[in-house]
Design a protein that fits this description.
Elements (H helix, E strand, L loop, with lengths): L1 H9 L3 E3 L5 E5 L2 E4 L3 H10 L7 E5 L5 H12 L21 H4 L3 H7 L10 E4 L8 H5 L3 E6 L2 H15 L9 H9 L8 H14 L4 E5 H6 L1 H11 L6 H4 L2 H8 L2 H5 L2 H5 L1 E3 L5 E3 L16
Parallel strand pairs: 4-5, 4-6, 6-7
Antiparallel strand pairs: 1-2, 2-3, 8-9
Bound molecules: 3'-phosphate-adenosine-5'-diphosphate.
Keywords: Transferase
InterPro entries: P-loop_NTPase, Sulfotransferase_dom
Family: Belongs to the sulfotransferase 1 family.
């Protein structure tokens, strides 16, 4: 069985990777080779429930931010955004990626039963690669998308920091060509975004699309929109302060300055340990102009 799977993976089309040696093309999208077994087991064995809430994104499009916001919105009766660490708001002492499991990473170490406990989960998989149970269940999907040129710049910085030391450095120019040719992790970018966009046009009750840029410009409006979409709207009383408190707790300024995100570490899919600060860089609209 494992031999068949390995043979299947090694026969997939291959291109040089950004972080590790090779990307493999599976069902039309490129993935780091080490993620493919997890993706296969997710597709086969994930059991989606109607109350699952799935955050989807192309990498570097605002996942960390949305994880913090969705965690805060869905848990607001348990934890107030103004609770200090001592009073137990997990975002004060946990990186948002520890609060919301990423399915293809969880699956990498729980391949036999890729079903984490929390109902709030995320994935970078393209829509057409999602487990069938996710597509057919009544679960809601929130997708965040970002200006691709900023995604490219952010992805390149991330790859440079994580790139295997056995490989030659990845120049920006090489990354640019790879991205434009669709050869990037979970890419092609446009196919990824358009699948979610087109499905949202057909099933707007199932998929909400947010833009990173609009969230930056109108955070309060978008946090209310998120809460309405997931069926957990803010009450009139909550609208006086609670929404702003959540926006402020999940802001780049606040999260990036928390001790856990400045000096904390986490294990990464390939078994290495990475710093949480890698998820916080500049958070600017239009940084691509500097490149
Ligand atoms: P991931 O796909 O690895 O989870 P993701 O969180 O989607 O990464 O993207 C990281 C980007 O979001 C970084 O952008 P930059 O490289 O252009 O700076 C990061 O700085 C930005 N980011 C992280 N947290 C926030 C936040 N709370 N608000 C706004 N942007 C954020």
């Amino acid at each position: 069985m494992a031999d068949d799977r390995n043979a299947f993976i090694s026969a997939l089309p291959t291109q040089p990777g950004w972080v590790s040696r090779s990307l493999k093309q599976y069902q039309g999208f490129w993935h780091e080779e080490g993620f493919i077994p997890g993706i296969l087991s997710l597709q086969e064995k994930f059991r989606c429930k109607p109350d699952h809430l799935v955050l989807t994104s192309y990498p570097k499009s605002g996942t960390t931010w949305l994880k913090a916001l969705l965690f805060s919105i869905t848990n607001r009766s348990r934890y107030r955004a103004t609770d200090a660490a001592a009073n137990g708001n997990p975002l004060e002492w946990c990186n948002p990626h520890s609060c919301v499991p990423r399915l293809e990473v969880y699956t990498g170490s729980n391949g036999d039963d890729p079903n984490p406990d929390p109902v709030l989960v995320n994935t970078h998989l393209a829509y057409s690669l999602l487990p069938k149970s996710m597509i057919h269940s009544k679960c809601k999907i929130v997708h965040v998308a970002r200006e691709p040129k900023d995604v490219l710049v952010s992805s390149w910085h991330f790859a440079v920091k994580l790139r295997s030391k056995d490989l030659p450095p990845l120049t920006f120019s090489e990354a640019f060509d790879m991205f434009c040719n669709g050869v990037s992790d979970f890419g092609p970018y446009w196919d990824h975004v358009m699948e979610y966009w087109n499905t949202h046009l057909k099933f707007s009750h199932k998929i909400l699309i947010l833009s990173y840029e609009d969230l930056m410009r109108r955070p309060v409006y978008n946090v209310k929109k998120l809460a309405d979409f997931i069926g957990h709207p803010f009450t009139d009383v909550e609208e006086c302060g609670v929404v702003e408190d959540i926006v402020s707790l999940c802001s780049f300024e606040k999260l990036s300055n928390l001790e856990v995100n400045k000096i904390g570490t986490r294990s990464w899919a390939n078994g290495s340990v990475i710093k949480n600060e890698i998820f916080f860089r500049k958070a600017q609209i239009g940084d691509w102009k500097n490149y």
